[in-house]
UniProtKB/TrEMBL annotation:
One of its GO terms (biological process) is phloem development. Residues 2-289 form the Sieve element occlusion N-terminal domain. This is Protein SIEVE ELEMENT OCCLUSION B. Residues 455-685 form the Sieve element occlusion C-terminal domain. PANTHER family: PROTEIN SIEVE ELEMENT OCCLUSION B, PROTEIN SIEVE ELEMENT OCCLUSION B-LIKE. The lineage of its organism: Eukaryota, Viridiplantae, Streptophyta, Embryophyta, Tracheophyta. It comes from Vitis vinifera (Grape).
């Protein structure tokens, strides 16, 4: 440790940069190319580096680079001569290294490294060039003989361990030089040397430069010894081989430390850039624009030359200009968006396209896939993305990588996206007119256009608590029954015994009261597999009508929950909004077991829990005399109200954490008290659920 401290003081004493700097990258690329091509036994990693050099912007062919080489050639030659002279003379490696530092006093740390590597590459590259072309070029053959190259190649098997040690050290030297250059290229506008990660790296870079230059001296000495003293001496000198391995280990240890600090620096810069982009997005959405192009480019792709969208119908890539001055609905979701959600959205979207002249068809949908960048992108995720994209008739972002991290943060923090799909509506000027119109889309479809809060309020003013509100857009059969003035019972739950008792008793009472009755099983909001089993049993036993397509069951409950969210979003409460009160009661009953909604045509006369609706039918004899004067619906409603007041079930609502906007508090639809809040964990054992990894 004390030796290292002394060494650091010595090399700092030689370091007096004069402020003149040059771009070391082109020269380093040239040196790296020479060393990669010269080093025997090139492995795949080096081949990859070679390919990178060949395919990169070749600045080494520019006139400015040749001018730079002309200015630096004298320095490179001096270093080369210094190393060759000291190597032949058997001088102390530390003294030789310090002499090189003295030659390079006025240069920056990374320039010292690249210039020293350049001097080494000249001699090392010449040695291996002669070895590679001596068989086909007479001049090279004659020079190779002078340098004993043929003899060395004849004994390559015996020399292999030494060459392997030499190659490993050269690779380490190149790698640490590349790393130090990366520190130099860090953007000063985002990071300064008072940042801990960069400050730590800067304290270790002089040491790294010293040991790399000293390793250059060691490598040059090995080659000089080989060509001047013969292969026999090289094979017998085991200490030198051990020295090469030791130096490679030391440099790799320093490299590991620097790489960790470099990773921290990149993370710091990334955070600063993301914060800058996030603030830019906030400012952008607060500004007024003549069209939506600035907004959409900032969200989807900041590069004008990229075609970031895939058109749904043709599946070809298109420019973002196709959305200019249009109403745009941003469908934001993860890869876990369900088949049910896509199926219903597809139906609504295609119905709006079928009426192209209508006002409600004047919008475009763009899918923005949000994925967790910290999770490794797997083939399964790519397959899932491609499958989803293929099913969408609207525009979609071509690849999730186009969505910047800052945009994902904006979507989560400002638009409250968690994991459930949201539908953000932008007007032709890019202004957000609805932070989430998904509830409006589920309830009213494209009729809700232009999906503003004013439109939402207007649509609710047209609604009332009637059966059409619950089943509109789902099943035309029920709408026909309503027109025919039939009694219609919607019921749900997964208790098959209760279902059998309820349907049998209800049908018997309807027969006794001589009323036309239809019953519809609409399942439950969760427990999909249990709903499927109940549907099968109901169909086989002919207990009632039911929906065979479970997407219809899903849509029924999704619309109902959307009604509640829509009402809450508009500021409605159960104490002043009877419709919200009934919606909440029905959602709550679903969580507590079976339930039934009974209607006479459109008129819903009971919305009740399984315990009270079945008991009312069972106790028919107690209220049947009220049927003639009051009518069946009012007589049932009055008796049910008495039972309900005596035994009100608990009310419960579940808001998944992925919903986004969760109300701070909520009133009970039964007693109007503020409900208690709990955190629950649940699993319905649905084997068809999509992995949370997405």
């Amino acid at each position: 440790m004390s030796d290292d401290n002394m060494m650091v003081k010595q090399i700092h004493a030689t370091h007096a940069p004069d402020g003149r700097e040059f771009d070391v990258k082109p020269l380093f690329q040239l040196v790296e190319d020479i060393l990669n091509r010269a080093t025997p036994g090139v492995d795949p990693l080096i081949s990859a580096a070679q390919t990178r050099i060949e395919t990169s912007d070749d600045r080494t062919n520019q006139a400015s680079f040749f001018a730079l080489l002309e200015a630096l050639s004298f320095t490179i030659d001096r270093i080369s001569c210094e190393i060759a002279y000291k190597s032949l003379g058997g001088g102390d490696a530390h003294a030789t290294t310090l002499s090189i530092f003295n030659l390079l006093t006025s240069y920056s740390w990374e320039a010292k490294l690249v210039l020293t590597l350049s001097a080494f590459a000249v001699n090392y590259g010449e040695f291996w060039l002669l070895a590679q072309i001596s068989s086909s070029n007479q001049l090279a053959k004659s020079m190779a003989i002078l340098k004993q190259v043929p003899t060395i190649l004849e004994h390559s098997g015996q020399l292999k361990p030494r060459f392997d040690a030499l190659n490993n050290l050269i690779r380490a030297m190149v790698a640490i030089t590349r790393c130090i250059i990366e520190f130099k290229e860090l953007p000063s506008m985002y990071i300064s040397q008072d940042v801990p990660a960069l400050a730590t790296a800067m304290t270790h870079i002089p040491t790294a430069v010293y040991w790399t230059i000293r390793s250059v001296v060691a490598c040059a000495t090995q080659i000089t010894t080989l060509t001047s003293m013969g292969h026999e001496y090289w094979i017998s000198a085991t200490n030198e081989a051990w020295e090469l391995s030791t130096m490679a280990h030391k440099i790799n240890s320093i490299l590991d430390l620097l790489k960790k600090q470099l990773t921290l620096c990149y993370q710091y810069i990334d955070d600063k850039r993301n914060a800058e982009t996030f603030q830019m997005l906030l400012n952008l959405f607060e500004s007024i624009h003549i069209d939506n192009m600035k907004i959409l480019r900032a969200l989807i792709s900041p590069k004008d030359d990229v075609q970031p969208l895939l058109e749904g119908s043709t599946k070809r890539r298109v420019n973002i200009d196709v959305l200019r001055r249009k109403n745009v609905l941003l469908l934001i979701s993860g890869l876990s968006i369900s088949h049910d959600e896509l199926s219903i959205l597809d139906q609504i979207y295609n119905e709006s396209r079928d009426h192209g002249t209508r006002m409600e068809s004047q919008y475009e949908v763009v899918w923005i896939p949000v994925v967790d960048r910290s999770v490794v992108w797997t083939d399964a995720m790519q397959d899932r993305f491609v499958t989803l994209q293929a099913t969408m008739p609207w525009y979609s972002v071509y690849t999730p990588t186009l969505i910047d991290k800052a945009v994902i943060r904006f979507i989560k923090e400002v638009w409250h996206f968690r994991n459930k799909p949201i539908l953000v509506v932008l007007d032709p000027q890019g202004k957000v007119v609805s932070p989430n119109a998904i509830h409006m889309m589920w309830i009213w479809g494209s009729t809700a256009f232009p999906f503003t809060s004013l439109r939402e309020e207007a649509l609710w003013r047209e609604e009332s608590w009637k059966l059409e509100l619950l089943v509109d857009g789902i099943d035309p059969t029920i709408l026909n029954w309503i027109k025919e003035g039939k009694f219609i019972y919607l019921y749900g739950g997964t208790d098959l015994e209760w279902i059998r008792k309820f349907t049998t008793t209800a049908r018997a009472v309807a027969s006794a009261a001589r009323i036309p009755l239809e019953m519809v099983y609409v399942g439950q909001s969760k427990k999909r597999e249990q709903v499927r089993k109940c549907t099968t049993a109901i169909t086989v036993e002919k207990l009632s009508y039911c929906w065979q397509d479970l997407t219809m069951v899903w849509f029924f409950w999704t619309r109902l929950e959307s009604m509640m969210f829509s009402k809450i979003q508009l500021g409605s409460t159960v104490d002043v909004d009877p419709m919200l009160r009934e919606i909440k009661k029905l959602i709550s009953y679903d969580k507590e077991g079976g339930w039934a909604v009974l209607s006479n045509g459109s008129f819903v006369f009971v919305n009740g829990h399984s315990s009270t609706v079945l008991l009312t039918f069972t106790e028919y004899n107690a209220w049947k005399d009220d049927v003639p004067p009051k009518g069946f619906d009012i007589a049932y409603m009055d008796f049910h109200s008495k039972l309900h007041s005596d035994s009100r079930p608990c009310c419960r609502f579940e808001f998944p954490s992925e919903v986004g906007r969760i109300p701070e508090n909520i009133k009970c639809p039964e007693c109007l008290r503020i409900m208690e809040k709990y955190i629950t964990f649940g699993c319905c054992h649905d084997e068809n659920a999509i992995s949370a990894l997405y």
